[in-house]
Amino acid sequence: MTFSNPWFIAAVMGVLGVFHLEFLTTLLNLKRLGKPLSPALAEIFPKETQEKLTAYIIDGKRVGFIRDVTMLGLLMVFWLLGGFGRLQNWAVLLGHGPVETSVLVIAIIMLVQTWLTLPFEIWDTFGVEAKHGFNRTTLRTFIADHLKGLALMVLIGLPVAWIVAWFFQTQAWAAFYAWIFMASFSVLMTFLAPRVIMPLFLQFKPMAAGELRDAIFALAEKLHFPVKEVSIVDGSRRSSKGNAFFAGFGKTRRIALYDTLLSSHNTEEIVAILAHEIGHNKCRHVPVHLALGLAEMGLMLGLLGWVLKSPGFFAAYGVSGTPIGMGLILFGIMYQPFGLITGLLGLAISRRHEFEADAFAAKAVGSSQPLIDGLKKLSRDHLSHPQPHPLAVLLHYSHPPLGERLTALSKY
């Protein structure tokens, strides 16, 4: 490993730069917790709630910071001591083909990373979330979820890694073929996830006949939004936080509501929240985000194909030759700052789309008040940051801050 290697310098600067930017963003966001609230926000977050959400956010950020410092330290030690090169050499000695060796290297690194972050997941779930009254996950459920996740990584993740590695190992137009494959796989998973994968972790039950179900189907009919079924999800088995989502395409759309959402919101609020989600579809937001995702994926795979041909890139990590599997892992490290930058456009468009969906919902139900009330409850019940720092919003928020959404909604 040569410290003067331009790839090495760029990679170190990228990793450390992203870490310090995230740390600065966290500090600025925490500092905003002490800023006086506007009268409208103070009504939603009284002093007692402010104290609770401040403690909750600080505890969560503490876990995240210690995790990030730990993972960064382990990465740098493993890197500088030649760990990537040693792992690659060991895998080659096993005598498998280049594609199989690539998949083995990817599996080992992903498994180690999963287990290294596991203690922090436990701390967050049974420490922070439990301390602040959100966690309802039992140890048995947590272990079962972890094992199911590992099984999915083996059954789905590794075959996908094998195909991508095979493309880059054998095909001249590897980046293009990988892009076509990953795009097709993403669309397939959008269809399969709510039907095959999510039921492994959540239980879906048809909503019983009643006022809410009638109101939901009436809204869907009014907006010409075909819905096949409405399901209740047992979210309360893991958390007290509410949620709702749509799944499916065309005439097979399904609405899923967490049981925790039903217990904390009235019919008008839930209908308004669903009208917001329907608004994303009616305003053509889904294809825009799909196109952006595919464009970023194409850019990423194009860059990947370029760096995989550079021995200097691998030498920056102490790896000899150009092994594909190790290259996929190392590219993930190198891509962090690029991913942060390319994500800015998508987040900005997403925030604009949220305003448009809010406006659609207000018009669909004939008033902005139900959605305003629903958003207030969601933010208060989730102990969300009432006024995040603009840098945090720029880098990470797919939704505008609550105050901005309420101001915009009050105009309708």
Task: Please provide a written account of the structure.
Helices cover 73% and strands 4% of the residues. The protein is mostly helical and 412 residues long. Strands 1-2-4-3 form a 4-stranded mixed β-sheet, sandwiched between helices. Helix 6 packs antiparallel against helix 7 and helix 15 runs antiparallel to helix 17. The radius of gyration is 23 Å and the shape is globular.
Termini gap? 61 Å
What fraction strand? under 5%
Mean pLDDT: 92
**Low-confidence blocks of residues:** none
Q: Count of helical segments? A: 17
Shape: globular
Biggest sheet record: 4 strands, mixed
Order of the strands making up the biggest sheet: 1-2-4-3
Query: Percent of residues in helical segments?
Result: over 70%
List SSEs in N-to-C order: HHHHHHHEHEEEHHHHHHHHH
Number of strands: 4
Q: Briefly note the structural class of the backbone.
A: mainly alpha
Q: Radius of gyration, rounded?
A: 23 Å
Summarize the structure.
This protein has 412 residues and is mainly α. It has 17 helices and four strands. Strands 1-2-4-3 form a four-stranded mixed sheet, sandwiched between helices.
Question: What is the element layout, followed by pairings?
Answer:
Layout: H1 6-31, H2 39-44, H3 47-80, H4 83-93, H5 98-131, H6 139-170, H7 174-201, E1 204-206, H8 211-222, E2 229-233, E3 244-247, E4 254-258, H9 259-264, H10 267-282, H11 285-307, H12 311-315, H13 324-334, H14 336-365, H15 369-381, H16 390-396, H17 402-409
Parallel strand pairs: 2-4
Antiparallel strand pairs: 1-2, 3-4
